[in-house]
Amino acid sequence: MTSAVALSAIEASRKFTDRKDAEARLAQAQRDLNAKVISPQDYQRLTEECLKIIRSCEPA
Q: Which of the residues 1, 4, 12, 27 has an alpha carbon 20 to 30 A from that of 44?
């Protein structure tokens, strides 16, 4: 395996992990909002952060 292929595979793996982590944080934020553990403002901030990460991980 060439180093370019290996680096590409590592980057794809990182993006996949980042996306799954952001999706999990988004789901947790929704549960926290429903349980009134966080404020709507905190939920909005978390949602924006997670969506930014998810969008950055989409294929070009």
A: 12
Q: ∠ CA 10-13-18 to the nearest 5 degrees?
A: 125
| Predicted TM-score of the model (pTM) | 0.85
CB 26 within 8 A of CB 46: yes
Average pLDDT over residues 2-7: 89
- pLDDT single digits (tens) 22-44: 999 999 999 999 999 999 999 99
- Say how far apart CA 4 and CA 46 lie, in whole Å: 34
Which of 32, 24, 22 has its CA nearest to residue 55?
22
Q: Which amino acid is at 42?
A: D
Return the structure tokens found at 9.
Answer: 């595979």
Are 57 and 15 a contacting pair, CB within 8 Å?
yes
